[in-house]
Amino acid sequence: MTKNFMEQRTEILNNQLTEEGVLRLIMNDQKTKNALSKQMMTHLMREISEASRNESIKVIIISAIGNVFSAGHDLKEITQARKERGEGEPYFKELFDQCSALMQLIVNCPKPVIAEISGTATAAGCQLVATCDLALAAEEAKFATPGVNLGLFCSTPMVALTRVVNNKHAMEMLLTGDFIDAKKAKEIGLINNYCVSYELEKETMNLAVKIAHKSSVAVSTGKEAFYAQSDQDLAGAYKYTSKVMVENLLKEDAKEGIDAFIDKRQPDFNK
């Protein structure tokens, strides 16, 4: 059983850090259905930024309390902003710029980020799931990009969605706004797996701990290379990753790992 040795709380975001170096961020703003309000995104960005610099943190989990993982942006907050100057345009720009920055922060974070979805994830909430490196869900979880039903196409969620789901499935979600269940989400690549709800936290933690025990140098190197090469042509990707492999081989962790394999022992990456 994983033991928590540090827990901190804010009004809407809690965190727990385990002995294995797994940081769990728990969204807890049930009044807004864990909406990605400016306040929530500010908290998430601060936690992820700090975790990126903390060598004791190996993996990050983003989860939520309640039956909604995240309902996306706070529509009441958006409606209130319309009363401001320019019918809310300056606020809207700040909101979506901040959301884009959050998503890029997750991708650029050297630590793997896992989404743990116990309920519904819609719009920017679905975008958050798609952006995370890995995603596990409860079997009753549902996913949608329903902005089109409100006259507001989910253009920013589309960026994350189309990077993990093929175009036909992504367009169906974006054009219909319909919900898909966890089984379908796994089939199209939006999530890695799903399980019964009472096993979700354990399954997510097992995955996180397994990764946390790997070389943090190899993991951070690999995550960065994974996203960098995906935007390159074939020749460019091989040239880039060959350079990454050479640099990785020169690291002490690679030497320790190879020596341990040859010596038939477990590697010690904490030397």
Tell me what the structure shows.
It is a single chain. The longest helix is centred in the middle third of the chain and has 20 residues. The strands form two sheets. A seven-stranded mixed sheet has the order 1-2-3-4-6-8-11, sandwiched between helices. A four-stranded mixed sheet has the order 5-7-9-10. By secondary structure, it is of the alpha/beta class. The protein has eleven helices and eleven strands. The chain has two domains: 209 residues, 2-enoyl-CoA Hydratase, Chain A, domain 1, CATH 3.90.226; 48 residues, Lyase 2-enoyl-coa Hydratase, Chain  A, domain 2 (Orthogonal Bundle), CATH 1.10.12.
Brief synopsis:
This protein is an alpha/beta fold.
Query: What is the domain total for the residues?
Result: 2
Give me the Rg, rounded.
20 Å
The shape, in one word, is globular
Enumerate the strands of the largest sheet in spatial order, edge to edge or round the barrel. Answer: 1-2-3-4-6-8-11
What is the average per-residue confidence, as pLDDT, rounded to a whole number?
Answer: 94
CATH topology of the largest domain: 2-enoyl-CoA Hydratase, Chain A, domain 1
How many helix segments? 11
**CATH architecture assignment of the largest domain:** Alpha-Beta Complex
Which structural class fits the helix and strand makeup? Answer: alpha/beta
Q: Estimate the helix proportion, in percent.
A: 40-55%
Low-confidence segments = none
